[in-house]
Predict the structure.
Amino acid sequence: MAKKHKGLMGPDPTKLQQAGNMESLPGGKMVFLAPHPLPTGEPALNEGAVSEINDSWLDYGAGWPGIFGNQLIIALSFWSFLFMAVVAPLILSPFMSPRLFNALSDGFTRNGLYMAAIGLVFGLWGVISVHSKRKK
């Protein structure tokens, strides 16, 4: 489970809450769930969404990033390549001679590929480390 950071807002311990109550927070909403699960006959399943559980409350939604994290890794790698291969040359082209621009254009593309590869490697390393910790 993810570690709870000190100083984060939590439920007001002086108020008695019922299932279905919602409290607004600066970063979203806090929804209070039923204290006991509904009997379905299926085994309990936690895919990393629950970060803290104790006798009085359940912190849901602060676990590992899941699908969004993987999409973010791919998108950042793609955009880093696009920036180096397309945007940076377009920004710098008015300040260079055409001959210098043609000489450097291959370098921009190569550096963009390097940036994308580095982003993918670090992103995949992060995903693998989270999954390996989760299996323990």
About this structure: Residues 98-135 form the longest helix (38 residues).
